[in-house]
Design brief:
By secondary structure, this protein is of the alpha+beta class. Helices cover 25% and strands 25% of the residues. The protein binds N-oxalylglycine and manganese (II) ion.
């Protein structure tokens, strides 16, 4: 598909995800180009821009901002020596401490980052969750460390009508306490207060396309009105359904790749690699949905 602006989107998977050609995202983009990228995000939910050279901090922030509003800062888990990156608007998705030293086995930032290997939607633990995330690859280890994406619209579509009917109005609670807690991470009193669970609809409706999608995440740990074992069993069942191979695109990183995904309609997870041996440096900018997801959830037909 090539539109009049010279953009081309080549599908990478039968269900979703495409590679975008014909735009230099290191330059400022026009509102028309931004609108075309937004339209492609509505369709593909994951877009890959392969450039060979990582964006600078300023370029990545400018590109992301041309598609919406950046998320406000949230409690960060940093290496013992503090932040590595020069700009708080970037999330440091790496196994590195300041000075690019590999984090020690026990470092809390390393242990938190391991949680990215569970299927999740970014910031689903915030009342106002994330819209797009844009992740740019600076250093990639020789093996492993792919990122997988799953299409939550396809997952909804493929549920049987009875299940759709049973779950369509359910409300879940999300918190980092549930996701990182499942890995055995302990929290301070302040973190327990900061990470208080927030409510999210289990089924979302996309504001432009009207398509429904499952809103699942490793951060989801309760269903309002359901006993805990029943809630966890249902969330586990739905997550297994939603992450079947046919709904999953696996991205093999090259340095300079920027992958952007819509957290409203996808989940993602990192895959393991030898993180005590090889550096891996990716940097993320994140756009906010701008309003609580609960406000977008409408009665489904
Ligand atoms: C993220 C994330 C997975 C990865 O950047 O939000 O979950 O493979 N990344 O690093
Ligand atoms: Mn993530």
């Amino acid at each position: 598909m090539r539109n009049t602006l010279g953009l081309t989107f080549t599908p990478l998977h039968p269900v979703f995800a495409a590679e975008c050609f014909g735009v230099d995202i290191s330059e400022a983009i026009s509102p028309a180009i931004a609108a075309a990228i937004d339209d492609a995000m509505d369709q593909y939910a994951v877009l890959v821009f392969r450039r060979g050279t990582p964006l600078t901090t300023e370029q990545q922030i400018r590109f992301t901002k041309s598609l919406g509003e950046l998320e406000p800062p949230y409690t960060k888990i940093e290496a013992e020596e503090g932040a590595r990156l020069d700009n708080p608007l970037l999330s440091d998705i790496s196994n590195l401490a300041p000075g690019d030293r590999i984090l020690s086995r026990e470092d809390r930032k390393r242990l938190f980052t391991l949680g990215n290997q569970m299927w999740h939607s970014d910031s689903s633990y915030k009342t106002v969750p994330a819209k797009y995330s844009a992740l740019c690859a600076h250093v990639i280890p020789p093996t492993g460390s792919d990122t997988e994406f799953a299409d939550m619209r396809a997952a909804w579509d493929m549920l049987d009508p009875g299940t759709k009917d049973q779950i369509k109005d359910l409300v879940t609670e999300h918190s980092r306490i549930f996701s990182k807690g499942a890995l055995g991470i302990q929290f301070t009193e302040k973190e327990l207060r900061d990470f208080a669970p927030v409510r999210q609809p289990l089924v979302r409706t996309h504001p432009h396309t009207g398509r429904h999608s499952l809103f699942l995440s490793s951060h989801a740990g309760r269903i309002v009105g359901r006993p805990l074992p029943e809630a966890l069993m249902l969330l586990r069942e739905l997550t297994e359904h939603a992450t079947q191979r046919e709904f999953v695109y696996r991205h093999k990183w090259r340095v300079g790749d920027l992958v952007m995904w819509d957290n409203r309609v996808t989940m993602h997870r990192g895959r393991p690699y030898e993180d005590m041996k090889y550096p891996r440096d990716l940097r993320r900018t994140t756009l906010t949905c701008g309003a609580p997801a609960m406000e977008y959830s409408q009665a489904l037909q």
